[in-house]
Amino acid sequence: MRTRFLLGRVLDLALVLLGVSFIVFSMIRLVPGDAVQIMLGANTEITPERVAELRARVGLDQPLLVQYWDWLSGAARLDFGTSIWTGRPVSAEIAAAMWPTLELTLLATLVGAGLSIPIGAFMARARGSGAEVAVRVGAIAGLTIPSFWLGILSILVVTSAFPGLSVLGYVPFTEDPLGNLQRMVLPVIALSLPMLANLSRLVRSAMLDAMGQDYVRTARAKGASARRVTYVHALRNALIPYVTSVGVAVGYMLGGAIVVEQVFAIPGLGRLVLGAISERNYPLVQATILVMTASFVFVNFAVDLLYAVLDPRVRR
């Protein structure tokens, strides 16, 4: 991989992260009203002393540029300040909630991205058959069914059929591997279905386009089997747009995890940020949103590098 290309992508990454940090920093400051009084809440006796104390505690008594620089330099050291209500470091609370979200997102990505390739290849190879139409209808249904509705429905069905089965909550894999995977099955299905449906249709379209190219016709003329033409020649080239779409889908999946975690009572980043918003925990809201958006940026950065490996023309 050329050094110039890599340095350009790293510079783009730094600029995007800087822009993301500025947007996240500005979000609460654009909300109408006094952020400190909003954090104190309507049920608290708001006195000038309490307002001044909290304003100094979260650094809102400084000029905006000073606030931004202090927050940005702290974030670069993974120091996001202290949670208003618990008194714990924000980075510690995020670290505790990050692993359930990472596990859920990783498993859902493996299921969605992994199954979409054989399903999409099957739809391309069996184009026009009854089985292909049935799978395509199922893919369209997967795109239209909301994850939260599918999650609620799956809970009702599974708990009715198996009353003793635990489907809610979270158990760390290191403590109880079987219990962890048991509780992860339904959330992973609910979160991965839209990704599976979308990527399957993408693989199908890309493979149909690839199977009409000259190199595929040449392989057929040389006597290559239909299976080899489909799964070796056409599929390899169809994976180039697929890789880009996987990166985008993972980013959106991080957002979808917020809803799924609420439905299945998983103590991840989604529940953490929603709880911080309801508690008006200003430092925790800022840091959690920054971590989630930065994760999306890093995923797409990795996809850019992988895309360049798959298609050397991108590096030119």
From TrEMBL:
A single GO molecular function term of this UniProt record: dipeptide transmembrane transporter activity
Compartment list: Cell membrane
Membrane topology listed for this record: Multi-pass membrane protein
Domain ABC transmembrane type-1: 98-303
Membrane-crossing residue ranges in chain numbering: 12-31, 104-125, 137-164, 184-203, 239-264, 284-310
Alphabetized InterPro entries for the sequence: BPD_transp_1_N (IPR045621), MetI-like (IPR000515), MetI-like_sf (IPR035906)
One family name in Pfam for this protein: BPD_transp_1
Gene Ontology cellular-component terms listed: plasma membrane
Keywords: Cell membrane, Membrane, Transmembrane, Transmembrane helix, Transport
Recorded family membership: Belongs to the binding-protein-dependent transport system permease family.
Name of the molecule in the record: Peptide/nickel transport system permease protein
